[in-house]
């Protein structure tokens, strides 16, 4: 583990926000006992724990429920920042969703480019693109995939995000194919090798962390954010201390204030132990 930028030694950190995949979850998608112990200790010290992911809200909550948070609320940031949820009392802190006109525009873009564009709705991936047996939604997602009806645009819909899900090589090529006017209208991010996701402009994990910190009355300087992928960039830049995992992308390590160990070697637990537990 190493520090890459100056970090204030005397700060009492009050909010720690963790990414899921590649961060608190092992390659086998498990939480380790050491991480759970560190969370329990941090919560007893009054630290607020939040999880932030590109996953659906239900998927983030499934992981949040496994943490020993006691009577504290615990917070979930889902869909790359579009949704912010408080576990207790069980309600949204914020929702920043796309409109039906956005869903139409992005679906049309996908058709022109030959890419299926999926709408996330109720834990389903919905598309008006023909669904082949080897469609990316089937190959690279655990969510159910379904074809939208021909008149799908008649029903009011406000998806938190849209997704292009394809073979890595096709996702590699996609950013250069998106017209500048469309690229400037939304927030695009590559969250995984096979995912290129689209949110409302200005919506990302960083904006959601800012919203949550303001809601809790916690200054930016007392926030730690931990992640490993491109969709964690804004979150790490927002936080008083941005921590990159040892397995993080090179760009994420370069902008982080601190680099911890990998998700195979208790990197997330070590963040709590170093910044919270050993200092109190």
From TrEMBL:
Any one Pfam family match given in the protein's UniProt record, by short name: Hydrolase_3
Gene3D superfamilies reported in the protein's UniProt record: 3.30.1240.10, HAD superfamily/HAD-like (3.40.50.1000)
GO cellular component, as recorded: cytosol
PROSITE patterns: COF_1
KW Metal-binding (keyword) present: yes
GO molecular function: magnesium ion binding; phosphatase activity
Record key words, sorted: Hydrolase, Metal-binding
Keyword Ribonucleoprotein carried by entry: no
InterPro entries documented for this protein: Cof, HAD-like_sf, HAD_sf
Protein name, UniProt field: Cof-type HAD-IIB family hydrolase
Annotated source species: Acerihabitans arboris
